[in-house]
Amino acid sequence: MMRVRPPELLLAGVACLCGAAVLAAQRPDAFTASRDHAAIRYSTAPLDTSVSHLSRDLDAGKVHLAFDKASGYLPSLLTALGVPVESQLLVFSETSAQASLIKFGSPRALFFNDVTAVGWVRGADTLEISAHDPRQGSIFYTLEQRATERPRLRRRDACLECHLTWDTLGVPGLTMISTFPMSDDKNAYASGVTVDHRIDLDMRWGGWYVTGKVVPARHLGNLPVVRTDRELSRPPPSPPVLQSVAGRFDTSGYLSTYSDVAASMVMAHQTHMTNLLTRLGWEGRVADYDKTAGQKAVANRLQQAAQDFVDYVLFVDEAPLPRKLEGSSGFSEKFSAQGPKDSRGRSLHQLDLDRRLMRYPCSYMIYSPAFDALPAGLLDAVYRRMWVVLSGQETGKAYARLARADRAAIVEILRDTKKTLPSYFQAVMK
User: Between the CA atoms of 318, 215, 192 and 359, what dihedral angle is there, to the nearest 10 degrees?
Assistant: First the structure.
């Protein structure tokens, strides 16, 4: 059998979509039309991303990027894009176009905020960037790591060879993969699991470093993925508990010695949430353009997509935390301080990390430009389904975990902070 590259955050996959019927049969929750459908025009439509804005400012001379001897444009780029250093995650699976430079002792560093992700590999020729466009989805760029008077951020649609897969729901996007231990035999192959907030923590972080003051006792991180058959025949070792990676490998050039557990938990939620936003928007725009939204089969598909979306927004199927988690990079504090706050100082960015990821189980991505850019009919369907769940009208067993106090708090926060919230979101009584 052929060895498959161990996956990472910016995951390898397929470059093109197969026939719509085949795709729908395999993944009914995936987008089936062309990314260059007239309603989408992924390759040619004007862009509205953090990187397209920065690129225009660079061309106009309004912004300058400084080149650092140790890490190139990375520090300056993160500052320009508003991406915090505290978000750093370290991936040692040997992947991407820079695979030959990625090792257990020289991991890839990933940084992110709500709409942008940046990948850096020590000694590599380029930085890799993903930025989310409210209508077009994830757009991919590179920045050459060479000091020049006017550095250029270049769009790279070739990245779709690795960033358009079943696991991205048939739209350009990101996935986070935990790779299972594999043999060092040349005929062995890798397997793993796509991670989001629904996956148990003991299945996460294969191929990743994870650091924190308190981390799960069981997970797959902090250990080499590729092992000898003798090692694999023994009971799996306990992962090392790391507050930082200082002393584990040469950290020269890295901006931080952390691969923060809280940051990793947030990224696991956000990758799938971002892909859901893109997929839902594309489905609605194609249906409107083709004038098929009223057809029963299409209407049912859109309704189901909206319901799946709301379930994820409200963390209905979130995996429970086995213990309280605590990071060590400062990410939790920085992330929780973000976001619009209601009259009582509450925010959907506030982390919990005791019972669950968020203090109030509603995704902060509801504030993203992509949410507000959803087609009107789908946005209405999303809001109506949210109210059915939050008001307590939905009595399905899966929704019992959403306590009335939490549902009431979410509605109160949204009423104070979300301008497009419909007026029927009122006090939660049951």
Answer: 20
pLDDT digits (tens, 9 = 90+) for 45-91: 999 999 999 999 999 999 999 999 999 999 999 999 999 999 999 99
Residue with tokens 């991303």, as numbered in its chain = 49
How far apart are alpha carbons 294 and 221 in whole angstroms?
A: 48
DSSP state of 13: -
How far is 110 from 392, CA to CA, in rounded Å? 39
State the Cα angle at 396 between 423 and 407, rounded to 5°. 40
List, in sequence order, every beta strand (DSSP E) within 95-236. Answer: 108-112, 116-120, 126-133, 137-144, 153-155, 177-179, 182-183, 192-194, 226-227
- Average pLDDT in the 246-273 region? 97
Q: Which of these, 359, 363, 357, 339, lies nearest to 417 by C-alpha position?
A: 339
Residue identified by tokens 């308190």 is 214
Q: Retrieve residue 188's tokens.
A: 């062995």
Name the least confident of 65-69, 164-168, 273-277, 417-421: 164-168
Q: Is the pLDDT of residue 182 over 90?
A: no
What share of the chain has pLDDT > 70, as a percent?
A: 93
Question: CA angle, corner 377, sides to 376 and 379, nearest 5?
Answer: 65
Dist. CA 143–CA 153, nearest whole Å: 5
